[in-house]
Amino acid sequence: MELTRRDFMRSVSGATLALCLDRLAVLRAGGASPALAATLSPAYASWEDVYRQQWTWDRVAKGTHHINCWYQRGCNWDVYVKDGIVWREEQVAAYPQTNASVPDFNPRGCQKGACYSHRMYDPGRVRYPLKRVGKRGEGKWQRVRWDEALTDIADRVIDVLRKEGPGAVYWDPGGGSTSGGNGVGLMRTNRLLDTIVLNLDGEVGDHHPGAQVTCGKIEFSSSADDLFYSDLILVWGGNPVYTQIPNAHFLLEARYHGAHVVTIAPDFNASATHADLWVPVKIGTDAALALSMAQVILADNLHDTAFIREQTDLPFLVRTDTRRFLRASDVEDGGKDDGFYVWDLTSKRLQAASPRSLALGPTMPALDGVFEVKTRSGPIRVTPAFSLLRERLQQYTPDAAMAVTGTHPDLVRRLARQIARAKAATVITQSNFSKFYHGVEMERAQILLLALCGQFGKKGSGVNAFPWLSVDAGTVATVAPPLPLKLGAAAVAELQGPALRQALQDGRTTEMFTYDGMRHEYAKGGFVSALLFYHRFGGLAPLTGSSRRWDPDLKRDLEAYLTEAVQKGWQLDPKLEPKILFEAGGNILRRARGYDRLVGGLLPRLSLFVTIDFRMSHTALHSDYVLPAAGWYERDDVTYATPITPFTHVTTKATEPVGEAKPEWVIHCLLMKAVQERAIARGLTTFTDRSGAERRLDQVYDQLTFGRQYTEENVEAFLGALMEVNSNLGGVTWETLKKDGCARFTSVGMGFGIGNATDIKPDETITANTWHTEKKMPWPTLTRRMQFYIDQELYLELGEELPVHKDNPPIGGNYPLQLTCGHTRWSIHATWRDSEPLLRLQRGAPVMYMSRPDAEARGIDDGQRVRVRNDVGSFETEVMVSPGLRPGQVIVYHAWEPYQFPGWRSYSVLTPNPMNPIQFAGGYYHIQPTFIVCEPGASDRGTRVEVERIVA
User: Fold this and answer.
1) pLDDT at 346 (0 to 100)
2) Rounded to 5°, angle at Cα 819 from 814 and 825
3) pLDDT-derived band of residue 952, with 50, 70 and 90 as boundaries?
4) Architecture category of domain 144-205+474-756 in CATH
5) What is the pLDDT of residues 784-793, one digit of tens each?
6) Residue 358, SS3?
7) φ, ψ for residue 706 (rounded to 5)?
8) H or E segment at 529?
9) Is 92 helix (H, G, I), strand (E, B) or coil?
10) Span 427-449, mean pLDDT?
11) What is the pLDDT of residue 148?
12) Helices assigned H by DSSP within 4-101
């Protein structure tokens, strides 16, 4: 039939009307307060009125999205409200331009943020407190009052605190915490009850172990507009066109400006289509590729000797007998174990390396040669670590490496020389390599390649590691005493002052002092590796402990390595079996590899499982209580942020929460109030903390709310106090922030963001690590340099004292295909994975990408259903045949909820996720477990599978 333009417009408008009325119907059915619901009968004569009046509004609020989209995090939105409903959101194009030579940050946003107003009213929204009445996961619920739920939860918490102790209560913070009420509320509650937070970054593979081993930190990144100073950009370990939608224009505009863009990846992905050069590499062989380019650079004498001598440990002398660094304790009576030496070519003698400054002065450290030196035990031979590196790299000539990487030697040589000769080369990487079993070596090799060419600490250079730059008042508020926050912050500063002054006097930097404090806090046991927690108590040990089954290089079982690491204090093993678990913004039973084992292994151990979320996730479906959190447009709060987009953002309360949902700060206040009131009513006013000290339960609400200064009734007063004590936003107030929606950072502050190690100037892009290269400030490692030689005993045992390539083991069994993953374009984690508007932009259900040759060899057509299997498990999905994949690779982009698969079995059921014992290493200054880093990590990349067509 023929369709006129008028008919087409009527059909489109009719669909718009249906969507609008559907949203109103959802609100009338329980999404709004009774008073609001009474006003929601639309007074519209026709669909045209709906369309016209959608573009009018009662008020506009500022908003963003408290979701861990991390590398693209931070977008300023106008939120339009009419009749008490958020109708739509619109990007705010008001970001200031850093300077006239670089693009501005406008506009920011993606399709996920653009449909959050739909997500907040859809059927998956949790509107009331729910109590499980059937079996876990059965989906049978009873609506209860807030006071009923909190009273029951508080009583159970009190009982466990007093009987089993606080070590039996765990919190999973997820990825949606904030710098304001949400984050402070959770962490302050945890500290007051002395309970335990699961450290999730290692579990999900976001912990960048190679960056930590090399640099002593992972929190460093430059701003997106700094790309405009690069003449060579390597997209290597990321896919920013998919996963950094608001930032991708910087990459593309830098290319228009003259930068050469290279994508290095196994598949011809969305970012590769926008590059000048695609360098194909076999899955899991990126370390070999980096080392082969490093070999070319040294062979052609293209390395930056001045940078290597000053900034790295490669000139440091290594004993040829023990393979350990020559230390002051070897040479002098009473010498320190962290004193190191170089061979000075000027004086022709041993020279101690300064731990206080990277400036060399007249010293000219040797990079090659063998020297005889006197020690307390007699003469020995030593050689610079650089000489050992040169020797190791001989096995990675481009011709030899081609058998491993599949990358043509001519291409390797061409790119290596381009990196060495670039004025400024940078790598866009994300949390990808750390998800490989040997990811630590992939990251070390990548950083080594750039360091050999001096590509750090100058405009347009460096590796963008874990991007963290946030409001530092959140850290202070977490630990402040129960006083008005300004007084509490002053008390914290006064307490820390003498320790900081002593650290500086001892030669440690403020950066080192910060990380030392984090390690000290971690050692108290308030944080624990989520992966080790699942290994011990979640039923995952047969999977996570199966490393030797797949890794032919291991000489011992995984459990033997773990036992040794715990006995030596390298790792903290969870001690108490969990009785209560709070899921506060995460989704354990979706994200954990082997989540199906957790259902049978972890949940039966729990007497109470509580989820706090705004939507009914797979984890919520298995919980005992689900407490409804306010949506992001229904609360006031401050986000976490990154240097990539150097602005903090806020959400402001555009509307009242749907149903009886509440902001997380309010939920934490009400929970602690219930604990305090029930403790008093039951006469159980104390408990014994994990150190054996007595703590009060009849004061926890007063302590949480800073002496009742900032309660559930005055959230904005708390946020105003946070801004008053914050140090890195230039004095911006909450009222100003609320009005503008965002503010640019003026310094890295004194929180975790100090790892960016740079001064932030108002008219300059942010370039990470200039404190090291320009101010000669030592790196926070054992050697005080970028450290490529690691003489920790586990690294020596496993042959990884220098960066090395090791083949990705056949995890999952001897099967021909390798399953990889990646962050999806259509969701941030699982938050939008079942969102109707976004499912319409895809195939509407989980899908696996497969190369045409592999599909044809198995008789599989596009759109057919298949079974994916290995020795661990199997799942079913639909196939999308793609010309962009290499034969032997299949991809399932992450975050599908298990309930979207047949039998609730997703791709994670066949990922054994074995731990690599190299990540158990510790007792080595910067290699010690702490918040985010130095814990065992995920290893799902490259899992071996086979695929077969399902015949109906």
Assistant:
1) 95
2) 180
3) confident
4) 3-Layer(aba) Sandwich (3.40)
5) 999 999 999 9
6) coil
7) 55, 50
8) strand 527-529
9) coil
10) 96
11) 98
12) 5-26, 34-37, 47-54
Tens digits of residue pLDDT in 397-409: 999 999 999 999 9
Q: What is the tens place of the pLDDT at every residue in 108-146?
A: 999 999 999 999 999 999 999 999 999 999 999 999 999
Q: Vertex 495, ends 494 and 500: CA angle to 5°?
A: 90
What global pTM score does this model have? Answer: 0.94
In this predicted structure, which of 5-9, 378-382, 578-582 has the lowest mean pLDDT?
5-9
Give the Cα separation of 296 and 449 in Å (integer). Answer: 10
Between these two residues, 763 and 575, which has the higher pLDDT value?
Answer: 763
Q: CA–CA separation, 921 vs 561, rounded Å?
A: 9
Supply 163's token pair: 């009987």
**How many CB atoms are closer than 10 A to CB 816?**
12
Q: How far apart are CA 609 and CA 603, in angstroms?
A: 8
Encoding tokens for residue 733?
A: 């107030």
- CA 427/CA 237 separation, integer angstroms: 9
Secondary structure element (H or E) that encloses residue 16, with its range: helix 5-26
462/455 Cα distance (integer angstroms): 6
Pairing of strands 527-529, 130-132: unpaired
Phi-psi sector, 170: left (phi>0), alpha (psi -120 to 50), beta: beta
Q: At what angle do helices 398-405 and 286-299 cross, to 10 degrees?
A: 170
Nearest of 879, 839, 835, 833 to residue 857 by alpha carbon: 879
Token digits for 428?
């866009």
| Averaged pLDDT, 808-829 | 95
Lowest-confidence range among 1-15, 211-225, 472-486, 810-824? 1-15
Joined tokens for residue 687: 């408990």
pLDDT at 16: 40
CATH class (in words) of the domain with range 817-949: mainly beta
Query: Token pair of 644, please?
Result: 């990539």
Residue-level length of the chain: 952
Strand 349-352 versus strand 141-143 pairing type: unpaired
303: DSSP letter: S
pLDDT surpasses 70 at 18? no
pLDDT category at 752 given cuts 50, 70, 90 is confident
Q: What CA–CA distance (Å, rounded) separates 931 from 218?
A: 11
**756 in Cβ contact with 646 (< 8 Å):** no
CA distance 726 to 811: 47
Digit-coded pLDDT (tens) for 500-549 = 999 999 999 999 999 999 999 999 999 999 999 999 999 999 999 999 99
Q: Name the E strands within 345-436.
A: 349-352, 371-375, 378-384, 425-428
SS3 content of the chain, % helix, strand, coil (to 5): 40, 15, 45
Domain residue spans of the chain = 1-56, 144-205+474-756, 817-949
Strand partners, 649: 742
**What is d(CA 327, CA 323) in angstroms, rounded to the nearest whole number?**
12
Cis peptide before 362 (omega within 30 of 0): no
Integer Cα distance of 42 and 924 in angstroms = 67
Q: Which two tokens stand for residue 951?
A: 């015949």
Residues in CB range of 709: below 8 A, 6 or more apart: 483, 484, 485, 717, 718, 721
Apex CA 241: angle with CA 240 and CA 245, to 5°?
90
Report the alpha-carbon distance of residue 408 to residue 402 in Å, rounded.
6
**CA dihedral of 305, 309, 312, 316, whole degrees rounded to 10:** 130
Instruction: Answer yes or no: are the C-beta atoms of 641 and 760 closer than 8 Å.
Output: no
Written as six digits, the tokens of 391 are: 């020797």
| Omega before residue 929 within 30° of 0, cis | no
